[in-house]
Amino acid sequence: MIRFNCDYSEGAHPKVLEKLVETNMEQTAGYGCDSYCSKAAGLIKSKCGREDIDVHFLVGGTQTNLTVIAAALRPHQGVISADTGHINTHETGAIEACGHKVLALPSADGKLAAGDIKACYEAHASDETREHMVQPKLVYISNPTEVGTIYSREELSAISKVCREKDLFLYLDGARLGYALCAEGNDLDLPALARLCDAFYIGGTKIGALFGEALVLCNDTIKKDFRYMIKQKGGMLAKGRLLGVQFAELFKDELYFEMAGHANKMAMLIKEAFKRNGYSFLVESFTNQQFPIIPDSILLKLKEKFEYSFWVKVSEKASAVRFCTSWATDPGAVGQLTEEIHKYGPVAYEDT
Amino acid sequence: MIRFNCDYSEGAHPKVLEKLVETNMEQTAGYGCDSYCSKAAGLIKSKCGREDIDVHFLVGGTQTNLTVIAAALRPHQGVISADTGHINTHETGAIEACGHKVLALPSADGKLAAGDIKACYEAHASDETREHMVQPKLVYISNPTEVGTIYSREELSAISKVCREKDLFLYLDGARLGYALCAEGNDLDLPALARLCDAFYIGGTKIGALFGEALVLCNDTIKKDFRYMIKQKGGMLAKGRLLGVQFAELFKDELYFEMAGHANKMAMLIKEAFKRNGYSFLVESFTNQQFPIIPDSILLKLKEKFEYSFWVKVSEKASAVRFCTSWATDPGAVGQLTEEIHKYGPVAYEDT
Amino acid sequence: MIRFNCDYSEGAHPKVLEKLVETNMEQTAGYGCDSYCSKAAGLIKSKCGREDIDVHFLVGGTQTNLTVIAAALRPHQGVISADTGHINTHETGAIEACGHKVLALPSADGKLAAGDIKACYEAHASDETREHMVQPKLVYISNPTEVGTIYSREELSAISKVCREKDLFLYLDGARLGYALCAEGNDLDLPALARLCDAFYIGGTKIGALFGEALVLCNDTIKKDFRYMIKQKGGMLAKGRLLGVQFAELFKDELYFEMAGHANKMAMLIKEAFKRNGYSFLVESFTNQQFPIIPDSILLKLKEKFEYSFWVKVSEKASAVRFCTSWATDPGAVGQLTEEIHKYGPVAYEDT
Amino acid sequence: MIRFNCDYSEGAHPKVLEKLVETNMEQTAGYGCDSYCSKAAGLIKSKCGREDIDVHFLVGGTQTNLTVIAAALRPHQGVISADTGHINTHETGAIEACGHKVLALPSADGKLAAGDIKACYEAHASDETREHMVQPKLVYISNPTEVGTIYSREELSAISKVCREKDLFLYLDGARLGYALCAEGNDLDLPALARLCDAFYIGGTKIGALFGEALVLCNDTIKKDFRYMIKQKGGMLAKGRLLGVQFAELFKDELYFEMAGHANKMAMLIKEAFKRNGYSFLVESFTNQQFPIIPDSILLKLKEKFEYSFWVKVSEKASAVRFCTSWATDPGAVGQLTEEIHKYGPVAYEDT
Question: Which of C76, C132, C236 lies closest to A225 in CB terms?
């Protein structure tokens, strides 16, 4: 079986692993107060073009999301998110477990628009009833989104502007950030994120690390006492240097972006193969996740050789499924997949 | 100004108040461990036709909802509710503040259907991803709903059946329960609720008490240690007998239902006046809340003499607003309102 | 049986109740946005000598404590309290249920000293480990304390000074505040509290109201969005005017303090009777709660006629128990109790 | 500088690391649903002598503690712990952040006695006031404790007996479990723990793993839906197999215990050196943590070459400090330390 079901099937990029091996017997201070974490934070600050940001390293994405949101909000405040947002659907109510409502807005492509955010804010701000409703205070977006789409600089700027007007925090979940920043058509970069967001994270787990997310805090309110929050929520790794060592390796040169670029390239080959055979897609994605809509009859055949993720049923006899590539995706495996697709020939949805 | 904006503008029904005055200087045990609470609980058990239920008295509805839900759920479990449900929209995230997600289902008339509940349950039960999602465990419904509609015995039985099949608790918010049970077309009663629900409450605040809700617990799991939960959530009234005295008065005869019947009758007069002049309604309600759709030009005139609640804009120039009656509504005031409506003559939406 | 077991055995002072009856059929806005609440708040501001404070009315003490603390703290922050503090012992973990640790300091007389607070703060502020520990952020004291003792102006000033130096909120639980302010030896008053504390409440439930506490917020951080917090925690009374009506009556003249003075006077008679017969006390109290240490043999006889509260076993055969008086305590009942004490004659602890 | 300040200064044991390297490019399912986790769980079940236990792998100790406790308790329930317990002092209120009070009992040696637990339970069970107090429901102990002491089989059996009589869960924090089970005088083993506890964990972070704790659940109530809890609390590692690979290596032979034995042996050398020079100890420890009481004048000299942890000031001029050894402790480094101690000669506390 060849796995295209997710982007965390393998371990770490060999260079990252090598660095862990090389530093294994060094003695360092615990809890992220070591020189590797300092170095990695310094590299990230430099790539973001700002020295006045705080960088923290956490183990995983759900942990990062819940820690940021718990740190940022007072008890009566909530989070605006697309209904497809990871915090809304796939984190077992982690945000609510910290006491906060997720105000989920309908979204066809996984993105929020500035206007939606403004309308949601205003719907909660009427004089008469506002204290009977949750107060929106943080906007959660993902880039790329859970369905692989990305924000343009113009879109993100508009969102950022609304957030600043309405005194909302803007937090960007970058579990797959590298894939967005290396996608065809992308016009955002780290300095832009550091300028437009109050907080965002650069995902390592899904791009070449064994595990780990680099959280960038730009807003002073969220920065304050943040290490207390990491500890309380169980996210403070005793051997914190493991995170520092990995991120230093990912960002000392361009390794992080090289890996993301490779994955996107592999994904485009898969996309192309489906497109050429007439398949529709759930959304148009230029990143490492592709969501072709496939007749059940073909899925039956595909699953004999390939693992993918079921996403959503779109008609009686067809479903959107997810094919994921990663830094580790073997072009040979992609070749087998595309060959298989071509072998089935042009898709016929009419009988579905 | 005549207030039709809510059903808690006045104090208590005179008979209830009189009883509070009469017993004022008696010395009783605190925290609801007095003879008045026992008596009132006994009356309610008897009206429900079951001795094996627990009855607790709390001060308000939000408090009751959050205490029941916190008592019933484990941290990873959530509540299925209509998107219009009070807990979803007008309790400032009280349920989330207790750690639980509200899984809000779209509802045009404020009600949930058995099939919607089943579908929601199943969407969260897939083998592959279920632990990444909240586990639905309690169904929250209101009767009457927030828009005045009511459940039939058949509908509630179907919901109860799904809940038992799927091991979901069924909890009914009865902030205005009397109005439902006395509505034209209603075929439910207290014994039916005590049989079909795991918990429900009989609202006093909105039907004749100074304040107070009588919570009925039918399910042993929720019953266990419930007084701890009341205390922890700040709902244990020191002079608990105030609740017992009031509910004993409401239920020793038919006072509770007489008051609700009066309010419904007043509401039907208002409904009739609007209907005769061609007004549409947001929903068809047979209880004390009416939601006519009214052109802005007419609202401008109405608001000079009457208070109502704004509900929702339905077109450029017309809104649904809420007129509420209560046990205290004066037929004379209703007369003034209906006269005014007739004075405006047949409604013309065309220019809205 | 004559009840001396608590100070909330009866209903409300007749003047308070009369006012509720008199205003019963008036129509007012809900949720505390009525003229009675405004009036009562105005009276309290005036008695505190400050216009820049916020006054909110809540139903009970646990509710008030948890709402203030939840509003004031971020998730990693905790509360310093005497180990005897009500929040630490008798509120079923309500503060922890809001996510906050109570850092309980040993206290023999129910009071905290400025030095204890400072030492606790410093023990949590070491550079190396602080983020592994809760951050102390709010100091909770009660006046009178749970064992009837009171703070002097000098003591409270010293506490306030430490709190301001260390950026700690100072919150005073005044469930029985009137009894403290009317006690022999007291040199504090409402303006002093409003100057020295960040928040405090004036208890009504235990001094003449049916229920209700008037919360005074002096600190802008805690003031912000406080009504959201009241609603979320289930403390927003629909017919909020009931609280306004009562507090307006308590504070329009000196009724609140007259009642407290009466209770203290009755308590001093009881104290005197025990003292004259050689009884020891758990602490020296000048307020309405007295804690004589009584041999079990005498308790057996007392309990045939009087209700008191068991407090703590102090030796094999003797316990401290609590006798409470209130605004409603009948001098005749006190006469019966003191007569009984004198009848037993001088106490002999030697055989205990 | 030679570090004796903690037992997590280095990375992983070389054999463990080698296994991670060896398996790095394999494709496996995520979230712990892979064959390595199955294998490791199987090995642990086998070492515990029970097939009916559940084994989960988490990243760190605080995370494990909070997840177990959140899974086990209802909102009104609390945890009995020694006041020195890690959850009470060094987890930034993580348990309270999940809503639960820690009922901390004084302990001189870090241990709880069966009698203390029973007394605490009974103090919270009085008919009159129990619902005003937290309900004790889980007993938290550490083995070895935070000060290196260990439980005997007799002590643990007595605790287990009280817990079962009183319907309390018994949870053992084994962050350093190996060191306890390999200590001189220990008579406990994994099968005994699996029989006497409801849950416990086998710490990897401090004994040879890069990170990771193996949680053993013996009680069906806690087992239920536990993966939901791991996910919600942010503890579900995407590449879960990293934990499985490590624990399989630690437990396929005796590596785990060999490493712990080495650390204990090194600690005994340090202990012996201090003892021979007349030093007192905070407690008598036979595990990898030693707490000698050292005059400040000597600490000044020691700190030029060695890192240790400050623990507690015991007099004007002397403090208890912690020396930690681990699987990675070099006998040469221990030699340097003991030589240094001998060089200072017999300790003189008199001038302290």
Answer: C76
- Nearest CB neighbour to B229, from listed D75, D229, D232: D75
Q: Which domain holds residue D313?
A: 2-6+256-344
In a domain, B175, yes or no: yes
Question: Do residue A58 and residue A206 come from a single domain?
Answer: yes
Distance CA A79, CA A99 (A): 11
Residue of A nearest to C77 (CA): A228
Beta bridge partners of C135: C77
Q: Is residue D350 part of a domain?
A: no
Residue-wise pLDDT for B182-230, tens only, equals: 999 999 999 999 999 999 999 999 999 999 999 999 999 999 999 999 9
| Tokens encoding B253 | 């005869």
CATH of the domain at C156: 3.40.640.10
- Here the CATH number for the domain that contains residue D263 is 3.90.1150.10
Q: Which of A135, A225, A230 is closest, CB to CB, to C228?
A: A135
**Under a CB-based contact definition with an 8 Å cutoff, are residues B237 and B243 in contact?**
yes
Query: What tens digit of pLDDT does each residue of D286-330 get?
Result: 999 999 999 999 999 999 999 999 999 999 999 999 999 999 999
C195 plus C321 within the same structural domain: no
Residues of A in contact with D9 (CB under 8 A): 27-30
**Is there a domain that residue C136 lies in?**
yes
3-state secondary structure (DSSP) of residue B206: coil
* Among the partner residues A71, A75, A98, nearest to C232 by beta-carbon distance: A75
Give me the number of domains chain B comprises. 2
Shortest alpha-carbon distance between residue A120 and chain B (Å): 13
| Contact at CB, A135 and C99, closer than 8 angstroms | no
Distance separating alpha carbons of residues C267 and B65, to the nearest angstrom: 41
Q: Closest approach of chain B CAs to the CA of A104, in angstroms?
A: 10
Residue A219 within a domain:
yes
CB contact under 8 A, A233 and D206: no
Give yes or no: residues B197 and B51 share one domain: yes
Contact C91, C65 (CB under 8 A): yes
Answer yes or no: do C238 and C302 share one domain.
no
Contacts of A132 in chain C (CB under 8 A): 231
Chain D: partners with 3+ C-beta pairs within 8 Å: A, B, C
Complex ipTM value? 0.96
Which residues, in sequence order, are CB contacts of B114 under 8 Å at separation 6+?
B155, B158, B159, B161, B162
